[in-house]
Amino acid sequence: MRETREDLKELQALLDASLSRSTSHLRSIINTESTLTAEELTGVLTGMCTLALSTVTAKGEPRISGVDGHFLHGKWHFGTARTAAKARHLAARPAVSAAHMRGEDLGVFTHGMVEILNPQHSEPAADWPDLLAYFKDFYGDDFFDWDNEVVYYRLHPHWMTVHAPGVDKLTAVSRS
Description:
Layout: H1 5-20, H2 24-29, H3 38-44, E1 48-56, E2 62-72, E3 75-81, H4 85-92, E4 95-102, E5 106-116, H5 128-139, E6 150-163, H6 169-175
Helix pairs in contact: 3-6
């Protein structure tokens, strides 16, 4: 687990606020028995989790694609090629939606804004060296030209909810 107590507190506040301002229909599906706490969620979202990421084109058309998601410090982190269409979409329109689903057992749904962690012609995020070390350890130091080939993002969520009727909560907490 990479989350601090403060990370968990912020994530729990986000999860609680998101569910409380959701529609009655969503709250009829996601309730205290079918969701996870921040601590449980961080115990489940380890390693690489495939995300369905939704961006918007210049014409306002939605586009969805898959990315390697890493849930670190209570936020999704993901990368793509600097030349990818989604990189252009995110540079112009940083609002995104992301979903990570494992069959009917787990669904994590997030809306928010992305931050570029390693911009090509300006200073990287303050924690980029630590994140880069994590990514290099995960993928291999020479998997990419890390300075020129890939761009990484952090998704700052303003809404996130979790549907987890098939997750063993005791196992999730023991992994965190």
